[in-house]
Design goal:
The protein has 314 residues and is α/β, with parallel strands linked by helices. The protein has helices at residues 16-27, 52-55, 74-90, 102-109, 122-131, 136-146, 159-172, 176-183, 201-217, 220-229, 233-238, 244-251, 257-280, 295-306; strands at residues 4-9, 29-33, 60-61, 94-99, 191-198, 286-289. The protein folds into 2 domains: 4-110 and 186-306, Rossmann fold; 122-183, Histone, subunit A (Orthogonal Bundle), CATH 1.10.20.140. The chain is built from 14 helices and 6 strands. Helix 1 (16-27) packs across helix 14 (295-306).
């Protein structure tokens, strides 16, 4: 029999933490974070990192596990998350995978195959250095000569994915599209219960705006200055770290604080839209509308949907 695994997914600011904590309390569960930025220590305010108060005594795994200077990837996450899920289940607890990083979630539930060498970054750094002085169209033409089928899965202006595809080809000697075909299979190795949280668009945007304003009030600028002083500026500007890049530009005098805040809000809204696009593509997700629902009510709705499939605590 496959091990049980619950997933709570969805865009930023939809209430995943609160709902998952309610479920963990009721189902004797522990939470495995699936957030590509909360793995990093020191990045607290800008990542809206789950606090001890929010955890409410429920064990959380894969938060604050590496320094910003350490290399990390989806393949590295997969290894750690797999180990955490197995260890939690071995103790008779329910693993609950929670987050908004779709690739991290799929890496666990579908046992995605990552190219050999994904844990290293030398090839990527060399390609990124070259890409800095090269138009995306030139790199795209190079990619299509090596992997014509990539035309169907990568946009010609998506430089980040083009670089990633070239890296995979160089590391493995196989077309990038081969791995993409394998990823189209959605057959989990777990007894899976997968739920997604959604919020009406205008309310989600309002929540995002409030969250960003709170980050600034809570000391985001001081956090960024501290990270720069610790030598992490290059990391912050090279990653998809919304909030940090914009504050760095403000600190350097390249934009006003108001413009930085507005840009953070806009990019967070765009990110939430991309997250929804990713999760909507997975037919295994049962959606829970959080627009007028508390975390407790959402947890009860999820439990009702499960119908006793996952054993209740006590």
């Amino acid at each position: 029999m496959n091990s049980k695994l619950m997933v709570i997914a969805g865009p930023t600011a939809t209430g995943k933490t609160a709902v998952s904590v309610e479920l963990a309390k009721k189902l004797d569960g522990e939470i495995v974070s699936a957030d590509s930025m909360q793995v990093y220590r020191r990045l607290d305010i800008g990542t809206a990192k789950t606090t001890a108060e929010e955890m409410a005594g429920v064990p959380h795994h894969l938060i604050d596990i590496i320094e910003p200077s350490e290399p990390f990837s989806a393949a590295a996450y997969q290894l750690l998350a797999d180990a955490a899920v197995k260890e939690i289940a071995a103790r008779g607890k329910l693993p609950i995978l929670v987050g908004g990083t779709g690739l991290y979630i799929r890496s666990v539930i579908d046992d995605l195959e990552f190219p050999a060498g994904d844990l290293t970054s030398e090839i990527r750094e060399r390609l990124q250095d070259r890409a800095a002085d090269t138009e995306p169209e030139t790199l795209y033409r190079e990619l299509l000569t090596k992997d014509p089928a990539a035309e169907n899965i990568i946009h010609p202006k998506n430089k980040r994915r083009i670089i990633r595809a070239l890296e995979v080809i160089e590391q493995t000697g196989r077309p990038f599209s081969d791995f993409h075909k394998a990823w189209s299979n959605r057959s989990s190795r777990y007894d899976l219960a997968m739920f997604g949280l959604t919020v009406e668009r205008a309310l989600l945007h309002e929540r995002i705006n409030v969250r960003v304003d709170r980050m600034v009030a809570d000391g985001l600028l001081d956090e960024v200055c501290s990270l720069i002083d610790a030598g992490y500026e290059q990391f912050l500007t090279s990653q998809q770290a919304i909030g940090y890049k914009e504050v760095i530009r403000h600190i350097k005098g390249e934009m006003s604080l108001n413009d930085a805040i507005s840009t953070i809000k806009a990019r967070t809204r765009q990110y939430a839209k991309r997250q929804m696009t990713w999760f909507r593509a997975d037919p295994r997700i049962t959606w829970v509308d959080m627009t007028e629902k508390s975390a407790g009510a959402a947890a009860e709705e999820i439990l009702a949907h499960l119908g006793g499939r996952f054993t209740l605590k006590g």
